[in-house]
Amino acid sequence: MTLNSLARKYEPRKVPETKVATSAMIASLAAEGYDTVAAPFGHALVDCARKDERIVGLSADLSKYTDLHIFAQAMPDRFYQMGMAEQVLISAAAGLAREGFIPFATTYAVFASRRAYDFIAMAIAEENLPAKIICALPGLTTGYGPSHQATEDLAIFRGLPNMTIIDPCDADDIADMVPQIAAHPGPVYARLLRGKVPSVLRRHKPDYRFQLGRAQMIRDGRDVLVISTGLMTMRALDAATALAGDKVDVGVLHVPTIKPLDVETIAAEAAKGGRLVVTAENHTVIGGLGEAVAGALLTRGIAPRFRMIGLPDEFLEAGALPTLHDMYGLSVNKVAERIRGWL
Amino acid sequence: MAMTTQAGRIPNLSLAQRAWNIRRKALLMGEVQGQGYIGQALGIADVLAAAYFHALDYRPEDPEWEGRDRFLLSIGHYAIALYAVLMEAGILPENELETYGMDDSRMPMSGMASYTPGMEITGGSLGQGLGIAVGMAMGLKRKRSPAFVYNLMSDGELGEGSTWEAAMSAVQHRLDNLICLVDFNDQQADGKSTAALATGDERAKWEAFGWHAQRVNGNDLPAVVAALDAARNAPDTQPRVIIFDTTMCKGVPFLEAREITHFVRVEPDEWGRALAVLEEGYPQ
């Protein structure tokens, strides 16, 4: 008997005329037209650790795929290889934090949010320990399918008291967040872009600097306000450039800190007259930035026209990342197209 | 080395008398609430007496003294037993005994780090203590501290995969400052632990994972003391585990004889009777 949900695997396929390689897990995220920075997290952590002896690094067999190998090579006596064992990765980080260290523990976002959740909740968050959990492959950043696509991690961690949650947009966000989260006295979950990471935000706003807990306008616009986080801020900025050609003026408010949410800035911008407000996130539309913003605005009596861009409530397809970003509406073209359709 | 800091402050009692005091305090707390994990508390009292009055180094007046040996209670529901020994050791005030499990008490039913002096971690989500102990043992080595980390866990926690992740990790990182204490009373929520998951020869299993392993009768005080000494003084770089076979409700024969379950039922009038039975057996 074939389950209906599995029947598709018996349909034969043709070889396509144009071949598109699936994205390997080590692939860097492509963003056309921007300079890139190699391993911004690894280098920033080394800089930070040189100034603060309490910092140690741990990985569950994914140091190379989270850029922590840069730290491991620079400071081998401060790096712990924990093996393919996410539960002890997290509980050991808790123990190190308890002994006065600032552990940076890395793995993929799926493994931290799904497998190690109880350990993050009870060993780290409940005791408000300063452990930092840094996770690659957030949302839809691999074509490997649901086993590696952390599409609901923000929803999972938003419900966890004490947890600070960051979804950085680019190499500069990542480099600047490292010393700030190291200095933060509580636990942090940060999504990570690794490898060659584009430098985007300062191209659009040269004096932009990541500030923990702050949302910041990257560009102003009269017609539409996009409130975005993570790599969707890149997409929103490029979509805004495209829409400017159609005489649609799009503002972009970048919200790298998902929790605690900068409600004051978000509410103030959303209340500015008559703009369509669109949230954009590399995450399921359930329980992420969009719903957080909607709840914050509604409780303050601010009710603009409101739309959400994010991943559907589905297990996503495997395939090539650009195809998937188009299919699920995260590409620049799809973002621009949907905003046009809503005007 | 142990207890040097307590000289003159706590009367010089034998370990058997300490264990008796721990049992008595646990029964008094059980009486306050009319319930509690009294079977486990009575069973582990000898191990706790030997740990706190023979093996561990600590300062009752400064529970967070940097040089202390760390004692982690992975099994949060054993809190009643740990509160008893913390009172006996002078870390918790005995006059708070009757607040056990009440609103605003510092002694909640399941142990939590933020409530109780001397409670190092929040246990209760079983299978977490040993992993946290691994991280603390790593941290102590980084600080070149001679302190040990003790993790008290239950036989039921041998069923958690995270226990074995931590067991491998402790060997990988040569944590000879880590001592795991397993209370083997063969009783978990649904019945006998050995009937729930095939844990096999538990001592051989720990040895196969690379640990210095011992298994002794956890209600035989000289054997418990000898095992703790052997664990602390083992010459190699392995982490150490002691499996203690214990008898639930030890010290109160009419409860020992009862059909033993994870949550031993004690009728309201039986707390006083249990205390009376215990009184008769005060060790000389």
TrEMBL record, chain A:
This is Transketolase family protein. The keyword Nucleus does not apply. Residues 35-199 form the Transketolase-like pyrimidine-binding domain. Belongs to the transketolase family. Keywords: Thiamine pyrophosphate. Its cofactor is thiamine diphosphate. InterPro entries: PDH/Transketolase (IPR051157), THDP-binding (IPR029061), Transketo_C/PFOR_II (IPR009014), Transketolase-like_Pyr-bd (IPR005475), Transketolase_C (IPR033248). Signal peptide: none annotated. Coiled coil: none annotated. It holds the Pfam family Transket_pyr. Gene3D superfamilies: 3.40.50.920, 3.40.50.970.
